[in-house]
Specification:
Its cofactor is pyridoxal 5'-phosphate. By secondary structure, the protein is of the alpha/beta class. It contains ten helices and 18 strands. Strands 1, 12, 13, 14, 15, 16, 17 and 18 form an eight-stranded mixed sheet that branches. It has an eight-stranded parallel β-barrel with strand order 2-3-4-5-6-8-10-11, surrounded by four helices. The chain has a two-stranded antiparallel ribbon with strand order 7-9. Helix 3 (about 60-65) links the parallel strand 2 (about 45-50) and strand 3 (about 70-75).
Length: about 400
């Protein structure tokens, strides 16, 4: 199989990876800023609130605030972290529909007034502990087309949404908006079309009840561009077409809403995944005969599922071996350092081509790993420390890792 196309990383990120001597995840702040500006140009007038769970790193959050972003927070701790960046609480959306009475009261105390909901029970709790708050009813989506569908746990039906927002009005809350999430790393345009259709139907029903909303929250789902699938093939989401569908959907909802309607989007991995990379090292490349008699290579890295690569069971990250630009490659299963069999790429799929001459201690760069690496990290599973964070800034465009440097699939 041919090598995947070149992975673009910035000159600053390339230099930081090349000079770093210890394991570390490094974020390119200028690259994040460029991705933010590109999003606001593609979707003019849509307010951006970064999904904090994707990268709860203070330096990244503070940088995004300086660019104009607000935040989607899922807990009082995330809200408190957001407030410390200096962002006004009115630009923080409590986007988690799962929250206790204490969570609601603490968020309200911290100044948050926008709350997501999807049930009558939650509305009653918000009315008690956050009187006068603005509520956004989250609609359920199928999640089809996404690597992580986020279905069933969150969101309600269109009929329930009308009932919930009517109840919110009755108890003194402000029925402010609707929200959706099409699924994380969404790969299709159809998911966005279906979400707009569902929102439009609910807007019409709400108008009949005398409820005119002022916002629609489009949630997350915009994909990163640098991933490989579980078989090692490049994921190629139709991002440009998605933006066209979103722009058309926004215009259509404004036409049918019956009120002035503003829009919010809550990207996470889209902003940070391709702007972060991990400098790790090789523990060992070993060769063992399996029970079926076949010999198999295993590449063990210092970084795995429990200290930075939690999503490795659903995708592959591009690997670069800077000390081995040439030479023979062998197909290997890539695994992390822990004494846990889950700490590995999905083994039933394609092997990763790795340099046969790679040795213990050799550096390996794990690209497009900026999303969820820090938030999913354990605090020392099996005695392996979490990765420290670093950051850099510089010119955001340079094809620093090319076809000849990135490891091809088997």
């Amino acid at each position: 199989m041919s090598r995947p196309g070149p992975a673009l990383i910035s000159a600053a990120l390339h230099a930081a990876l090349a000079t770093e001597s210890e394991d570390r995840i490094i974020y390119d702040l200028a690259g994040i800023g460029e991705r933010y500006r590109s999003l606001t140009e593609e979707l003019p007038g849509v307010d951006v609130r970064f999904a904090m769970k994707a990268c709860p790193v203070d330096e990244v959050l503070t940088y995004l605030v300086a660019q104009g972003a607000g935040f989607d927070a899922a807990s009082p701790n995330e809200i408190a972290q957001a407030v410390r960046t200096g962002v006004p609480p009115r630009r923080i959306h409590y986007g988690n529909t799962v929250k206790s009475d204490r969570n609601i009261a603490e968020a309200y105390r911290l100044g948050v007034r926008d709350f997501a909901t999807d049930s009558l029970e939650d509305v009653a709790a918000i009315a008690t502990h956050a009187p006068g708050a603005r509520v956004f009813c989250r609609l359920a989506t199928s999640g089809e087309g996404a690597l992580w569908g986020l279905s069933r746990k969150f969101g309600c039906s269109a009929a329930d949404a009308v009932v919930i927002l009517e109840a919110a009005r009755a108890v003194g809350l402000s029925p402010a908006g609707l929200s959706v999430h099409v699924g994380s790393q969404q790969m299709t345009c159809d998911a966005w079309r279906e979400a707009f259709d569902r929102i439009g139907d609910v807007l019409v029903s709400l108008r009949r009840s005398g409820i005119l909303l002022d916002h629609v929250n489009l949630g997350g789902g915009l994909p990163a561009l640098g991933y490989l699938d579980r078989r090692g093939n490049p994921l190629d989401p139709p991002l440009d077409k998605m933006f066209v569908v979103i722009r058309e959907g926004v215009q259509r909802l404004r036409e049918i809403s019956g009120s002035e309607l503003d829009f919010v989007m809550e990207p996470g991995r889209y902003l940070v995944a391709d702007q972060g990379a991990i400098k790790a090292h090789v523990l060992r490349l070993s060769s063992r005969r399996q029970l079926n008699g076949e010999r198999e290579y295993w590449l063990y890295l210092s970084c795995g599922k429990f200290n930075g690569l939690y999503e490795m069971d659903e995708l592959q990250y591009r690997l670069a071996f800077p000390s081995h630009p040439d030479g023979e490659y062998v197909p290997a299963v890539v695994a992390g350092p822990s004494c846990d069999s889950d700490d590995a790429y999905a083994q039933e799929h394609s092997r990763v081509q790795v340099p046969r001459a790679v040795a213990s201690g050799d550096p390996v760069w794990i690209l497009s790993s900026g999303a969820y690496a820090t938030s999913y990290m354990t605090q020392g599973f099996n005695g392996f420390d979490p990765l420290p964070c670093g950051w850099t800034a510089g010119e955001p465009e340079r094809p620093a890792v090319t076809d000849d440097e990135a490891s091809p699939p088997a």
